[in-house]
Design goal:
This protein is an alpha/beta fold and about 350 residues long. It folds into two domains: about 5-135 and about 290-355, 3-Layer(bba) Sandwich (FAD/NAD(P)-binding domain), CATH 3.50.50; about 150-205 and about 240-285, FAD/NAD(P)-binding domain (3-Layer(bba) Sandwich), CATH 3.50.50.60. The chain is about 20% helix and about 20% strand. It has helices spanning about 15-25, 80-90, 175-190, 210-225, 245-250, 340-355, and strands spanning about 5-10, 30-35, 95-100, 105-110, 110-115, 120-130, 150-155, 170, 190-195, 255-260, 265, 270, 275-280, 280-285, 310, 315, 315-320. Strands 1, 2, 3, 4, 5, 6, 15, 16 and 17 form a nine-stranded mixed β-sheet that branches. The protein has a five-stranded parallel β-sheet with strand order 7-14-8-9-10, with helices on one face. Strands 11-12-13 form a three-stranded antiparallel β-sheet, with no helix packed on it. The longest helix is centred in the middle third of the chain and has 16 residues, at about 210-225. The structure holds flavin-adenine dinucleotide. Flavin-adenine dinucleotide binds near residues 14 and 294.
Length: about 350
Amino acid sequence: MTVRHSTDVVVVGGGQAGLAAGYHLRRQRLDFVILDADPTPGGSWQHMWDSLHLFSPAEHSSLPGRLMPAQTGETYPSTGHVVDYLADYEKRYDLPVQHSTSVDAVRRGAGRLLVEADSETWRARAVISATGTWSRPFLPALPGRSAFTGEQLHTVSYRSPADFTGQRVIVVGGGNSGAQIAADLALDGHVEVTWVTQRPPRFLPDDIDGRALFDVATARRRALDAGRSDTGGVASLGDIVAVPPVRAARDAGLLTAKPVFSRLTADGVQWPDGSHTGADTIIWCTGFRPALAHLAPLNLRGARGHIPTDGTRALGEPRLHLLGYGDWTGPASATLIGVGRPARNAVGEIAHLLRS
Ligand code: FAD
């Protein structure tokens, strides 16, 4: 039997983006619910690897309304600290998060949007989708991938070097995850690591952390909005934030990258010059795609799997907003400090729509 509910707004996803939306929905005194697939608070932060720390200090990693407290003894907070902060945020603002609720579909019906999850359906006047990217890991289709008989995993399944003691591991990916996981393994000293990147790794200057990235993303958005030329944004500075472990591994000469192999073989990889490196495990740090499958019935998909938006509002469905997926839904909107502003704008637009 399906249980039916009615509300002003359903937020799909209760990670940092969904919670930031909840904060502003409370302030607008709208009736809403946040549906979150995870059984516990913290969004994707609760699934990230053990040694990961933020690339910005706590005071530069806050959601609207509540400054993240500093973590004792750490300039850059651990993921556990972020999870505690998000759990506290949920409670502090009494946000109605229904955990263990995975939304399968959002569709149009009788003047409302229908949000379907398992045995429950919500009739909503507006929907904010804030499902992130963590549940959609991307793996490139490189030749021989299915021929490799060792273990293959993506960033989402990596936990700690202890799982690879004595192994030959190839880490693929020249972004932050690739550099940090390669550094984590190399610094451990018990794993033979080969780091592979599509182009030579581009480290940001050592004195630049997440604070500057947010400023650069914002400046780029302002320039584009004002019709000025593209500043290139964060990508113009480099790909990899030189967080302390990355710096340590790089300075110890442990973080030199090789260009991508030409194919995988049963027991390793073959390089363009024909030589071969044996491997027990390949870790694909090759990024994510937005988790938008639940929106498929609305038929809104544009190029590159994105949904075309004006700000956060879907062009093809004005009652739907997309929040937190990346720069295409607001500058630095996939960061803790960056999601507050697009959340406020999305909720402001929804409040206006519902009251007009
Ligand atoms: P998520 O945290 O992924 O939350 C989405 C939520 O939606 C989850 O709880 C999930 O269960 C739920 N969900 C998904 N699908 C459904 C569905 N169909 N129905 C219901 N619920 C659903 N940002 C920073 O600001 N500082 C950093 O230092 C930083 N470091 C990062 C390091 C790594 C390795 C990564 C991957 C990202 C980092 N980021 C950082 C970026 C960013 O802050 C995170 O990606 C952030 O978790 C995105 O938040 P979100 O709320 O959009 O998505």
